């Protein structure tokens, strides 16, 4: 004859089979509580592990421990990289001193403007801008054509001297036209200029201006520009350059501004406009930037900044500074 079975709860015999589960005593209650906590802990760790593995797989293509161990780096790359790699270059002001005919002088009408080395003036002018050597390479792509290289476009580049002035406008250099030039993009959409590293003048983050035109014939009229923007220069490189003779005023000016406070780059901290820089003071620096142009959108850049239009010189800072937005 079989023995009667002892009632159980969650696989454990009840010490008081004739009583309710809640009346089995303190020892039984503690055992039940601990068992539930262990189960929850095991489930939680398992779910967390599955979640991390899924994140590692989606962000890096593998579920490796290394991928899971650096979620912040993956997130930064995923967020910033996507925007920077696909976004159209922001339209910006051409500043008060473009030299494209939209605000006085027009260097684009002068013979000799299409050149790669912009350190010296051309035509009737003969001056040369001094400073730390720099090359600038812009790679222009056509978002309206699937992001392909924008071959044949004309790119006009200009920037300030190491003292912070602009040729054709600033006091003492109105007869010069250096640090201005045009290049026609090659089959890969690239243009390259040889120049000097620009200053940081009062009120603006260190930058380089540029306009993109459909072709060489279009540069005769600033209204033909299909994109107007600026290249921002990295802080660490600027600090190194500004320790060199001739850049003394830039040290103070740089300390008073940031990419986030700048009235041009401040919208997004220059996310799609911050140049990549290699090199050193002795050998010179190479600055590069991908410039993505979308001809399906209406250009909104160019023209003068809200505070622009004042006469060069007498504005404080080195060489007679342009107003904010220059």
TrEMBL record:
Record keywords, A-Z: Dioxygenase, Oxidoreductase
Domain of life: Bacteria
Record field: compositional bias (Gly residues): 300-326
Keyword Oxidoreductase: yes
Disordered: annotated segments: 1-21, 61-109, 295-326
Pfam families: Dioxygenase_C
Protein name: Intradiol ring-cleavage dioxygenase
């Amino acid at each position: 004859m079989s023995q009667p079975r002892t009632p159980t709860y969650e696989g454990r015999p009840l010490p008081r089979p004739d009583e309710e589960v809640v009346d089995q005593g303190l020892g039984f209650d503690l055992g039940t509580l601990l068992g539930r906590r262990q189960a929850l802990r095991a489930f939680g760790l398992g779910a967390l592990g599955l979640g991390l593995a899924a994140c590692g797989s989606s962000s890096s293509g593998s579920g490796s421990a290394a991928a899971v161990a650096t979620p912040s780096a993956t997130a930064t790359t995923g967020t910033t990289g996507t925007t920077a790699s696909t976004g159209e270059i922001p339209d910006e002001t051409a500043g008060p001193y473009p030299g494209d005919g939209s605000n006085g002088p027009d260097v684009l009408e002068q013979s000799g403007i299409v050149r790669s080395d912009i350190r010296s003036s051309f035509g009737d002018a003969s001056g040369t801008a001094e400073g730390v050597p720099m090359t600038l390479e812009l790679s222009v792509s056509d978002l309206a054509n699937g992001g392909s290289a924008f071959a044949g476009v004309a790119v006009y580049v200009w920037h300030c001297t190491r003292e912070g002035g602009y040729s054709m406008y600033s006091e003492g250099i109105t007869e010069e036209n250096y640090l201005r030039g045009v290049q026609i993009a090659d089959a890969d959409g690239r243009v390259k200029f040889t120049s000097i590293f620009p200053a940081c003048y009062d009120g603006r983050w260190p930058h380089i201006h540029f306009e993109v035109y459909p072709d060489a014939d279009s540069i005769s009229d600033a209204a033909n520009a299909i994109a107007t923007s600026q290249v921002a220069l990295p802080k660490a490189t600027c600090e190194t350059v500004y320790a060199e003779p001739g850049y003394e005023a830039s040290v103070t000016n740089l300390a008073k501004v940031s990419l986030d406070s700048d009235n041009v780059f401040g919208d997004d901290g220059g996310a799609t406009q911050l140049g990549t820089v290699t090199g050193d003071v002795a050998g010179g620096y190479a600055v590069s930037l991908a410039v993505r142009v979308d001809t399906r959108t209406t250009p909104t850049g160019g023209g003068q900044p809200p505070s622009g239009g004042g006469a060069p010189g007498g504005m404080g800072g080195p060489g007679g500074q342009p107003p904010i937005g220059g």
